[in-house]
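Chapter summary example.
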Amino acid sequence: MESGIDLQSSAIQLLVDLGLPPALAKVLWLPLPMGLMLIVATVGVLIAVWLERKISAAVQQRYGPEYAGPLGVLQPVADGLKLLFKEDIVPDRADPWLFTIGPAIVVIPVFLSYLIVPFGQNLVVTDLNIGAFLWISLSSVTPIGLLMSGYASNNKYALIGGLRAAAQSISYEIPLALSVLAIVMMSNSLSTIDIVNQQADHGILGWNIWRQPVGFIIFWISALAETERLPFDLPEAEEELVAGYQTEYTGMKFALFYLGSYVNLILSSLLFAIFYLGGWSFPIPVDTLAGWIGVSPDVAWVQVITAAIGITMVLVKTYALVFLAILLRWTTPRVRIDQLLNLGWKFLLPVSLANLLITAGLKLAFPIAFGG
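The structure predicted for these 372 residues follows.
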């Protein structure tokens, strides 16, 4: 399979070829991937919020939003505008700097993680050779923002909520990292492009979900806990009559927490599709399909169709996982805090360690099947 193209290097080289100095070309390119990342993530959040409302309504046998635009598609926009114009209140005894920085620390690392996500075979902002490690590193920053938000509010409910949110995030971050490490070991690379290419040659039979049946379950459970989705939404459980670390927040600062949650849900679904479901690869290799209909895969129109299929496959796999996460939220009961921590430390951690060791042993014993 052809390796993914690094759009950053290609774009900078194009600007240099047009006569710009390399340093100036880099400066002019920098805002473009950031803007693209923000647009893609924001549109994804609007779709996820609309899906959340419609799926929850279907589960409860009601209609959900249907008047704000066709089928209620503009309802998330209306919600965003309402929060944008709400008054931003800072409690008198809160630390104003930490109170403001906390939500930003929660959101910014999630947005930055989109830089290494390949949405298609040749559609990635930058193909880092440490892409998977960068995502794990950025996700480890989020607990700092959660704890900071609870502490800065000068409210005991918010502080307890922040401590519990940080404890939950840390507890499930380690099994998540170990499950990704098993994928990296089989792919011999930390690059998200290389991980997909390693799965793409054999169609659906080459996807890592078959070679990592335990790893993908650990990854999905840990991802739901990291994004604070039911049954793991204890940090803002509504039966407490407070919103955990969000108790004192209003307006857009309050909205940033939910924006980060939904952006993180879509990001986790994207990375699940990349790590375990073959990313942009079709269940039947495109080269095989081209051979069946008697055309060369190198023909221009075949390559265009292949690229379109790749982008479509990434989105279909991602939103199928988003649908599953939303469905779980409205059909499963919430766990207690002791059950949550026991699951993370006493079950998922040792199982993920065992999965990593077994993967290493299988890689040595069957190098062809396990990427040796």
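To summarize the output: Residues 42 and 263 are 8 Å apart (CA to CA).
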